[in-house]
Amino acid sequence: MWPFLFKLPMLEPIQIIQKYFSKKSFKAFAFQEETWNAFLNGKSGLVNAPTGSGKTFSLALPILAAGSLSNKKGLKAIWITPIRALSQDLEKAISEAAVEMGIDWDVALRTGDTDTKERARQKKQHPDFLITTPESLHIMLASKGYHELFKNLDCVVIDEWHELIGSKRGVQVELALSRLRGLNPDLKTWGISATIGNLDEAADVLLGIRFPENKKVLIKAGIEKKIEVKSIIPDKIEELPWAGHLGIKMIDKVLPLFELAKTSLVFTNTRSQTEIWYRQLIEKDTDLAGLLAMHHGSLSGEMRAWVESALHQGFLKAVVCTSSLDLGVDFRPVEQVLQIGSPKGIARFLQRAGRSGHQPDAISTIYFVPTHALELMESSCMRKAIEEKIMENRDPFIRAFDVLIQYLVTLAVSEGFNPVEIKNEVLDTFCFSTMNDEEWNKVLSFLIHGGKSLGAYDEFSKLELIGDVYKVTSRKQAMRHRLSIGTIVSDPVIKIKTIKGKYLGSIEEYFMSKLKPGEAFWFAGNCLELIQVKEMTALVRKSDEKKAQIPSWAGGRMPLSGQLSGMLRRELSAFADGSIIMDDEFTSLIPLLNKQKEISIIPKSNQLLIEQYESKDGFHVFIFPFEGRLVHEGLAGLMNYRIGQWMSISFSIAMNDYGFEMLSDQEIPIEEILGNNVFGTEDLSNDLLNSMNGIEMARRKFRDIAGISGLVFQGFPGKQIQSKHLQASSGLFFDVFKENEPDHLLLQQAYEEVLLQQMEEKRLRLALERIENSEIVIKTINEPSPFSFPIMVDRLREKMSSESLEDRIAKMQRK
């Protein structure tokens, strides 16, 4: 007689998760339970929760629990993250959770840093759960047999979606998701996002425009994260402030703050500032040697990984860093954050604050260190915006045809693509939902035979129709394309290596080209002497020089966001009419703001202040829209162009985030100028392009577009083509299209990107509409006001060394 066999009942996925939480003595948040149930019921959506609230567990656990009941082999889940530092942290957390839940899953990592041995292992035996980046996902789509790799894929999670949505990397994700959904219509798609102003739109971009409403959810945590903002007030507030006059001079107030916490993160806004602050802190307090580190994106991967590991283990007292550490990495020893200078955006400030007090119930503490006195107003405004839940939008990228062209070649070098099938998938994305048949046919024509302008050249014929599928048959073109996948563009970089071969990181070519052998520069915390540059590699050795150059990187200055600009105008208006709720920042600025009232006025929210001033330099007009540097650059150029249409006068222009200056050697008839509708919105796009040498700006923008679309090959790894040659090559194509095919999609895209991104046309138009409805107050002043003085200094800075600039400023202040 056979014995009775008893089989233990299989736990349901939700029970597996609950058992794990019970074992760890965790208590689930309501949003986590809501997400678990939504995922296990086949829904897709977006999770919005503050830093340190368990967003990762809200999705990783149901993926593991549901997958444990599946008999399918191979890749079942993909987790996309925008930064490599985050990917290593995720791999560790998810692997540990799988082990403790008793789930035998291979959790693997694939990024640009993954070695060839590990990639070969993954290709031979597909992992169950893969953590990767947008670029690596597209490289997988460029591999032969990708259908087989993704055939059992059940879900994709996009981490830090708010960081991707407004970029071409976000478009890469949209296109990859459209293909994965084409392979598996039941694919679950989830995003994780910090708070942004347009969460509903962010969910639509993630899921595509035709995603079924009954399968879509937006889950908000509703957890109030406590943020404590403390400004470091200078001992003396200059009545005539200027950008950079504080900054490093605040170091004596910064050093004692390190004693208040186990570990601190010191955020700067640029890599150059990170290098400067690290060096100055070490020189000021030698006891920090070995306890202070730096982290930015141009350092070697090995160096960054060491810093991240040391942070996790609590070995470091502080790390000076850029945005390379402001995304969701959980460094629990970090108890406080310092922000050097205004980050110019509420969301960025909040994100960085969240690096401290990472536990759900902990307080996130951030100290604001101003680099000039007026930045204290921004600190106050950011605190109030956080309290009032005012946050910036992340506008999605639309009609990025260079990314679409790259994507189609990616599919063509692997299995090829059916144009009807892929067109329908592409039209489902938010980015290309408005693309018409003519535009699609232009894209195909460009790839098949180079389009109308390049049809006579065989090298631009990339696609060949084999049956009903377009393929790339040239091995050379396929290899070049696989090496060029990605949308992150920057100037070509020079690798920095010691004479013993140790790789330190990279610096952009344009900076290194200015150095001569024997000259010294600061990098990675060391003073280095340049020995020679050979084939995009600079050999260096340590130097004892006391004075050395600081590397500069492109794209350093961030403009004031629209929401922060609005807060600034509101609070200044409240100060002007006496209704402001005073805080430490505005209290400290009372002498400065009273000086502004004495010399001129503080404008109310329905006023535009214009100041006139005559000096030995000429006739100055200062205009204060408080709209941010980029908008002011556009407004100044627009005024200059429109005035020039009916009056012969030349201007020097300077600007900051609060206003702009127009300086001339002849008197400026400002009232007559205003009577000629210089702030009107009519024909704005054309006037902007004409006013700021829009053709040259579009030419420079076209270089990036040409690289992404594959029109220009940017070189093999380690042997990048020099910047001047890239610009020359792309410039030739720009001129060919401009003369022979002015409606070329890539040419039109260059102009659109210049208007929308570099000139911020949308925001500039709103500013002009606001100005049109404002009272214009013109004040003739006898001396520079606290608002106009920093703009004058910014103009002088471009002409003078730092020592002579300080002397000149001191004289102006004494006068």
In short:
The protein is of the alpha/beta class and 815 residues long. It is built from 33 helices and 27 strands.
Low-confidence stretches at least 5 residues in length (pLDDT < 50)? Answer: 1-8
Mean pLDDT: 88
Strand runs, count: 27
> What's the story with the biggest beta sheet?
7 strands, parallel
Structural class: alpha/beta
What portion of residues is helical? 40-55%
Strand content: 15-25%
Principal-axes shape call: globular
Radius of gyration: 28 Å
Question: How many alpha or pi helices?
Answer: 33
Report, as a whole number of angstroms, the end-to-end distance. 110 Å
Q: Name the strands of the widest sheet in spatial order.
A: 3-4-2-5-6-1-7
Tell me about this structure.
With 815 residues, this protein is α/β, with parallel strands linked by helices. The strands form six sheets. Strands 3-4-2-5-6-1-7 form a seven-stranded parallel β-sheet, sandwiched between helices. The protein has a six-stranded parallel β-sheet with strand order 8-13-12-9-11-10. The chain is globular. The N and C termini lie far apart (110 Å).
